[in-house]
Write a structure and sequence with these properties.
CATH topology of the largest domain: FAD/NAD(P)-binding domain
Oligomer: single chain
Number of domains: 3
Largest sheet: 5 strands, parallel
CATH superfamily of the largest domain: FAD/NAD(P)-binding domain
Number of helices: 9
Length: about 425
């Protein structure tokens, strides 16, 4: 029998996989209440207070190659051994769909804590929320006082963008500095100082949301992390304690939730089921992660990779060959990277970086305003570079991605040499 492919989730990972498969002549069914209307999330929080285009749509039409099922998938059950199908998707409508291949691309949903002083507080995690805030700002006319709960990327992007547009902004955070769980000390401390000088106010060591004063802010935005959207498989959800899916850390009073563990080929432990994008926690390969890498470049790369894997398997069958098992096929190996524009500040990460790294190497331009932090596989001089953080130096971020993706990855000893030309090395 032929392949019956279902993709659950019409975000960037799912949409990309569906488009790639369809264009190659492979029919696919895309399950999502909003299938067909996908957009790029990062600009939502970066351009709330200006008139620039703040999202990039990825519109997809249903056609003879792509079937939209605009319902919510509630569970999967696996077929018994010997069945021609791998399993069945159960929809909220009560309908079912059998599959030979299933890609979980359900993405994440934002945590939504209640702020007693601001019952209308909301995150900026979808297009409707972003449009509501943009309309509110446009109708206000006068400068606003913006409150932000949370110290991650989204919260700092909102606060810094507000200040850059002439508003005031106060960030309430549980710890002593923002971006503590995202960036290493040199980068996050530099951003902290730059944002404070620009006018962003920080209230540190917030013990409870009840301590946030009422009547101060005209607009209040929450940013306390997100969690993968999970669908039970044979009644089981991912509940390992080995990693926390929420990159912001767990929220007081809420149970942590987890992503699906996948191997270097993005396969789950369940035959015929893969996971891509924000709901996938990669445990093997060159870039194993301690939490889902929630960013658009990785989601798009996952979608393309899985489409190519499925198409390659079909090509093997057509040629009369035995299809490659996941263990024999090429693993996913694209360099994961992330970008965050915070007002005038631009920060990038590439590869594997750690907020707790304390033996890194820092290199800056002559002004000291632009710099990179290099992370290594170990403390030895011959330890290879595994990740790079870049502040306000886009050309060097591009160089970092080229280096990490290439065959000439430098060592700690090389980068400790002041005469080592990293940009020139990236062109080898």
């Amino acid at each position: 029998m032929g392949k019956t492919i279902v993709i659950i989730g019409a975000g960037l990972a799912g949409t990309t996989a569906a488009r790639e498969l369809s264009q190659a002549g492979q029919p696919v069914t895309l399950i999502d209440p909003e299938a067909g209307d996908t957009y790029e999330r990062p600009p939502l929080s970066k351009h709330l207070f200006d008139d620039s285009r703040y999202h990039l749509p990825y519109h997809l039409e249903s056609d003879e190659g792509i079937t939209f099922v605009r319902h919510r998938a509630v569970s999967l059950t696996l077929a018994e051994a010997g069945s021609e199908f791998a399993g069945t998707v159960h929809l909220a409508s009560g309908e079912t769909l059998d599959f030979t291949h299933c890609i979980l691309a359900t993405g994440m949903e934002a945590n939504r804590p209640e702020v007693p002083a601001y019952p209308g507080a909301l995150p900026v995690y979808n297009l409707a929320e972003a449009e509501w805030i943009r309309n509110f700002v446009a109708e206000a006319g006068d400068p606003l006082d913006v409150g932000v709960l949370g110290s991650g990327y989204l919260g700092i992007e909102v606060a810094s963008a507000a200040v850059a547009a002439g508003h005031t902004a106060t960030v309430y955070l549980r710890g002593t500095e923002p971006l503590r769980l995202q960036l290493s000390a040199p980068v996050r401390q530099a951003l902290f100082a730059k944002h404070a000088v620009a006018g962003v106010r920080f209230v540190t060591n917030l013990e409870s949301v009840e301590a946030i004063p009422a009547g101060v802010h005209d607009l209040f935005v929450t940013s306390v992390g997100a969690r993968p959207v999970r669908i039970p498989i044979d009644g089981t959800l991912p509940t390992t304690d080995e990693h926390v899916a929420d990159p912001e850390g767990t929220v007081a009073g809420e149970a942590p939730t987890f992503a699906w563990d996948v191997d270097a080929h993005l396969a789950t432990a369940y035959p015929g089921v893969w996971a891509a994008g924000d709901c996938a926690h990669i445990t093997g390969g060159r870039f194993p992660l301690t939490h889902p890498w929630a960013c658009e470049p990785v989601a798009e790369s996952h979608g393309k990779y899985l489409a190519q894997q499925i198409l390659a398997e079909a090509a093997d069958r057509d040629a009369g060959d035995v299809p490659s098992s996941s263990g024999e096929s090429k693993p996913w190996s694209d360099v994961p990277w992330h970008w965050s524009f915070q007002g005038p500040e631009k920060v990038f990460t590439a590869g594997l970086t750690s907020p707790d790294a304390d033996d890194t190497i820092l290199r800056s331009d002559p002004s000291g305003e632009k710099f990179q932090v290099f992370h290594f596989a170990g403390p030895d001089p011959e330890a290879e570079l595994i990740g790079v953080e870049t502040l306000n130096w886009p050309p060097m971020q591009a160089a970092a991605r080229r280096v990490l993706a290439g065959d000439h990855v430098p060592t700690r000893a090389q980068l400790e040499d002041p005469d080592f030309d990293f940009k020139a090395h990236s062109r080898l």
